[in-house]
Amino acid sequence: MNVALPALIVFLLLLPGFIARSRFKRAERISLDYSPFGQIVTEAMLWNCVFHPLWLLAAAWLFGHTLQPLLLLELLSSDAASQAKAIQGIALQFSWICAYFLSLYAGAWIVPNGFRLMITHYRLDRANAGWYVPWLRFNQAPWYYLLTGADFDEEQRPDLISVSAIVNVAGQAVLFTGILDNFFVDANGSLDRLILEKVMRRPLSADKPDGASIAEELERFYVVEGDYFVLRYSEAITLNIEYIRMDRLVDDDMPEPEPAVDTLSEADTQD
Questions:
Q1: What is the per-residue DSSP string for 186-255?
Q2: Quick check: is 129 in a domain?
Q3: Which of 173, 237, 241, 243 can pair with 158 through a Cys bridge, CB separation 3.0 to 4.6 Å?
Q4: pTM of the model
Q5: What is the C-alpha separation between 243 and 104, in angstroms, rounded?
Q6: Spatial contact of 104 and 51, defined as CB atoms under 8 Å apart
Q7: CA distance 112 to 103
Q8: What range does the domain containing 195 cover?
Q9: Same domain, 10 and 108
Q10: Is residue 140 part of a domain?
Q11: Do residues 92 and 191 share a domain?
């Protein structure tokens, strides 16, 4: 008990930092976190240095309870008599100590989630957002930035994301193209599959002829029937991503205005 109790107390004190760290970061790898151990512990300790002082101040302001360092040191002591004395002191304040830790764990879960949603909503993690990007960017989620357009500011954010992939079908290279609906990664963080809509395909050999019109270009493709098309990344030879904005498409499709021609009226010619 002399060894187990201090270890349990240290675990309970450090757990909020690890919870907050896991909820704040956006990582595509879900099997194992290969971050250096020192980095994990440092980030967790920084979160603890934020949460514990805030919760202690709130407890002192709302309920009049303050931290008793002597009681904590006695709990962490290896002396059985000191531990027994500290346990008796905790028993007298058991209700508010339980409320402190339960609310602390809940806050460590909720608050980082709120920060992450705020960062995503206001796009504060864009590559060119500012000097604070290294602290806010989710460096373990490269597919998130590539396949969501999260690196664009709000004015330049794409309306659609087009995906084109070359797939080997029965020994023939076939080009599939469609609008990205969703994507999934595997447990190791690698891209697993893409969910596409409005998919068309064509043999890679049927390349675009020079000077072809839009109608002639579309004739080269065959529509793939179905609502959703699942493209496995492991089967794709190459992958092309295109960010599409509808206003640019409208501007490109509009015909250029004809140059104005100055004309003289009959009266002007008579003059």
A1: -TTS-EEEEEEEEEEEEETTSPPPTT--HHHHHHT-EE--SS-EEEEGGGEEEEEEEEE-HHHHHHHHSP
A2: no
A3: 243
A4: 0.70
A5: 42
A6: yes
A7: 14
A8: 158-253
A9: yes
A10: no
A11: no
Each residue's pLDDT tens digit, 229-257: 999 999 999 999 999 988 876 555 545 54
Q: Is residue 261 part of a domain?
A: no
- Do residues 143 and 226 lie in contact, with contact meaning Cβ atoms separated by under 8 Å? no
Give yes or no: residues 12 and 107 share one domain.
Answer: yes
Residue 248 tokens, joined: 């640019």
For residue 235 the two structure tokens come to: 């089967």
Same structural domain, 8 and 115: yes
* CA dist., res. 134 & res. 121, Å (int): 17
| Total domain count, the chain | 2
pLDDT range class, residue 41, cuts 50, 70, 90 = confident
What confidence tens digit (pLDDT) does each residue in 105-157 have?
999 999 999 998 998 888 888 888 777 777 788 877 889 999 999 888 888 88
